């Protein structure tokens, strides 16, 4: 055997060895045979999560992972969860989802809009696996969608903003002008107007979900133009920290961000995905799973406005609590007619509450927001 | 009036990281090495600066760490292109991607962390001058150092022996070699200095500007800095002005949005590159201009034996 081939063999052995080791590591430790008398324990249900970002993003994905942990604590050893983070939206996602199915997962949660096509394709091939897609719209017999009414939190934040602003100018740092974000801008403005009719909202778009330096610049330019309470729909803490630097106010989004800016933080719009994961996994375990679109709001507790700053006056806190109670009772809605857009056109008639179809078609600013929605095309 | 002062202030602070990285790349390119790895070097600098500031609480040690991290990656790049004669373009791109991946991997634990309070560094007295105070005297110390550094670099390149040697190496490495200058070592030094400056620029973004760490947070500013060197036709003072111009365009765009003026977002973000192409076209139309401006050996490997 010459030297080269012996080296080759050595490499082969190393690779095989590593492979075997990996395989061993992945395999469940073999349990000793259960005593004959004990009742047979059912295999745990395997549940997998596909995340678009890193679990440490302090925002969107972090909130989903808290939900996964919540479900795990709830069901204990009846389920076994895994997750794959930083999965790019697009063809790679399909490969990841197929791989998770091949590993024996029976429930797959995909937590970003862009996973929709991949979920649909894989769901077709595996009818006995349950697929759950966050913020999506495509459904099939074994594929359903879920999302939160985030705008209700934006409305509650708006109430605080309307009360706390001294300049009557509030600001919003937006990512992309899509209905979801426009709803938040509108709800934020309407919440503020409900307590302070003089409020105006200024909007700056950064064209990204995540560009901290640019988010900071956008926040700064809003502050430079007299906005003194800011909300954002982007995923980092940069807006909050810029407000802190300037002695202004802002909110946390997706998760409790109070630790990042103790002086500027007024409250956080937290997403309690765990409530839905609890329900969905329960549906599978109890065999009551059926295709449906779940949209949960403040009433169900999925979006929750938390960690209100201690320095907010009690009268303001009460207004927030009243609105929350109203949302739960169904007497307060973020979008309630008569509602005008900022060109004066009526978008909701008197007495009409915006339904999901209306929500999905929002492409305007309500009265009180300055400027024009940038055209996407 | 006050609004304009604040816009000027925002322009200065948004142009500063572009200028720091741009000056570093200018030094590289004046020595004949094109460093497309700038983005990656800024990212490792941003992470190192953030991590060290996080643990020590001192941002200046953080900047030093950012410079060190950028310099190490640059030294690796320099070794590849100067000694092993790898293609500068391909190696630069690879280093850029490598720096991005490495910083994302090592920095995962620092995402969502928070730095301590910033000391107020604005200049008392001057800060209260109407208009000029808020516009120019409320910046981080690094912003002023950048201006000083630009002037110093311009002087060094044009008026000192060291600057002459650096330019000689970039213009005609064979002649410099024949005269007995260690061309490869001078190039490596230039690359390391350039990487260190990119690292500081990254650290400025993560420690002062955002201030937070997250993967990919440099978000293309390394490429803008590269475009800047061409835009400035390799002159430091022009580069500084160009950095403020590019920073100013971004800030103006955001400012106009907040005023309710509709501006096409994507168009504004491509403006720096468009401006660079225009400058390239202008200087390339005239061979004499190219000779006057562009370092003659830029991007070409140097073989000392041949």
Q: CATH superfamily of the largest domain in chain A, called what?
A: Response regulator
* Strand-residue proportion of chain A: 15-25%
Task: List the total number of helices of chain B.
Answer: 13
Radius of gyration of chain A: 24 Å
Total strands of chain A: the figure is 14
End-to-end gap of chain A: 66 Å
Largest interface: A-B, 39 and 37 residues
SSE class of chain A = alpha/beta
What is the CATH topology assignment of chain B? ABC transporter involved in vitamin B12 uptake, BtuC
Strand content of chain B: under 5%
Written description of the protein model:
- The complex is a heterodimer of chains A (377) and B (306).
- Chain A is an alpha/beta fold and 377 residues long.
- Chain A folds into two domains: 45-149 and 274-296, Response regulator (Rossmann fold, 3-Layer(aba) Sandwich); 150-271 and 301-360, 3-Layer(aba) Sandwich (Rossmann fold).
- Helices cover 40% and strands 18% of the residues of chain A.
- Chain A is built from eleven helices and 14 strands.
- Chain A has helices at 3-26, 60-75, 91-102, 116-125, 150-164, 179-195, 212-224, 238-246, 273-285, 314-329, 356-360, and strands at 45-50, 79-84, 107-110, 130-134, 143-148, 169-174, 200-205, 229-232, 249-254, 265-271, 293-296, 303-306, 339-340, 346-348.
- A six-stranded parallel sheet of chain A has the order 2-1-3-4-5-11, sandwiched between helices. Chain A has a six-stranded mixed sheet with strand order 7-6-8-9-10-12, with helices on both faces. In chain A, strands 13-14 form a two-stranded antiparallel sheet.
- Chain A is globular.
- Chain B is built from 13 helices and no strands.
- In chain B, α10 (221-231) runs parallel beside α12 (265-284).
- The mean pLDDT of chain B is 88.
């Amino acid at each position: 055997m010459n030297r080269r081939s012996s080296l080759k063999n050595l490499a082969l052995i190393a690779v095989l060895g590593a492979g075997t080791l990996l395989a061993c590591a992945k395999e469940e430790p073999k349990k000793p045979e259960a005593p004959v008398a004990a009742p047979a324990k059912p295999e745990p249900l395997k549940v997998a999560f596909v995340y678009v970002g890193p679990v440490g993003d302090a925002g969107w994905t972090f909130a989903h992972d808290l939900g996964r942990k919540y479900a795990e604590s709830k069901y204990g050893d009846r389920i076994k969860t895994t997750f794959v983070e930083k999965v790019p939206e697009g063809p790679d996602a399909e490969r990841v989802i197929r791989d998770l199915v091949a590993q024996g997962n029976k429930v797959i949660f995909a937590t970003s809009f862009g996973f929709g096509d991949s979920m649909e394709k894989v769901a077709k091939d595996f009818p006995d696996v349950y697929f759950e897609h966050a913020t999506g719209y495509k459904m099939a017999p074994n594929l359903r969608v879920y999302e939160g009414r985030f705008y209700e939190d934006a409305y509650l934040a708006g109430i605080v903003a309307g009360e706390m602003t001294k300049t009557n100018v509030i600001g919003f740092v937006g990512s992309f002008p899509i209905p979801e974000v426009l709803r938040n801008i509108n709800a934020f403005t309407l919440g503020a107007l409900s307590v302070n009719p003089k409020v105006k909202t200024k909007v700056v778009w950064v064209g990204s979900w995540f560009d901290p330096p640019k988010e900071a610049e956008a926040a700064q330019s809003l502050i430079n133009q007299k906005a003194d309470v800011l909300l954002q729909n982007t995923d980092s803490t940069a807006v909050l920290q810029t407000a802190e630097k300037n002695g202004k106010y802002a909110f946390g989004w997706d998760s409790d961000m109070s630790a990042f800016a103790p002086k500027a933080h007024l409250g956080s719009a937290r997403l309690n995905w765990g409530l839905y994961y609890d329900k969905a996994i329960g549906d599978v375990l109890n065999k009551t799973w059926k295709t449906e679109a779940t949209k949960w709001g403040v009433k169900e507790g999925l979006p929750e406005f938390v960690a209100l700053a201690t320095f907010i006056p009690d009268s303001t806190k009460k207004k927030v609590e009243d609105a929350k109670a109203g949302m739960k009772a169904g007497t307060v809605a973020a979008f309630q007619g008569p509602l005008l857009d900022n060109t004066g056109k009526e978008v909701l008639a008197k007495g009409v509450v915006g339904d999901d179809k209306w929500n999905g078609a929002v492409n305007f600013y309500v009265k009180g927001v300055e400027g024009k929605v940038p055209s996407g095309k | 009036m006050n609004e304009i002062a604040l816009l000027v202030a925002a322009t200065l602070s948004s142009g500063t990281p572009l200028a720091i990285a741009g000056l570093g790349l200018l030094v590289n390119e004046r020595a004949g090495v094109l460093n497309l790895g700038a983005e990656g070097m800024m990212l490792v600098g941003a992470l190192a600066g953030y991590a060290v500031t996080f643990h020590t609480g001192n941002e200046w040690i953080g900047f030093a760490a950012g410079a060190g991290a950028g310099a190490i990656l640059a030294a690796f790049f320099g070794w590849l292109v100067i000694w092993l004669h790898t293609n500068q373009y391909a190696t630069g791109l690879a280093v850029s991607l490598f720096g991005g991946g490495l910083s994302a991997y090592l920095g995962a634990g620092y995402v969502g962390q928070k730095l301590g309070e910033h000391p107020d560094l604005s200049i008392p007295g001057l800060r209260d001058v109407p208009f000029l105070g808020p516009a120019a005297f409320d910046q981080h110390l690094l912003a002023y150092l950048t201006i000083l550094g630009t002037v110093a670099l311009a002087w060094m390149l044009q008026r000192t022996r060291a600057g002459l040697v650096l330019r000689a190496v970039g213009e005609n490495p064979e002649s410099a070699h024949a005269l007995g200058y260690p061309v490869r070592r001078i190039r490596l030094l230039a690359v390391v200095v350039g990487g260190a400056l990119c690292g500081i620029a990254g650290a400025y973004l993560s420690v002062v500007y955002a201030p937070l760490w997250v993967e990919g947070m440099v978000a293309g500013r390394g490429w803008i800095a590269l475009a800047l060197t061409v835009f400035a036709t390799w002159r430091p003072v022009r580069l500084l002005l160009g950095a403020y111009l590019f920073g100013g365009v971004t800030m103006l765009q955001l400012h106009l949005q907040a005023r309710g003026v509709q501006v096409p977002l994507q168009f504004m973000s491509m403006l720096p590159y468009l401006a660079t192409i225009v400058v390239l076209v202008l200087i390339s139309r005239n061979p004499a201009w190219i000779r006057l401006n562009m370092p003659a050996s830029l991007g070409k490997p140097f073989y000392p034996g041949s």
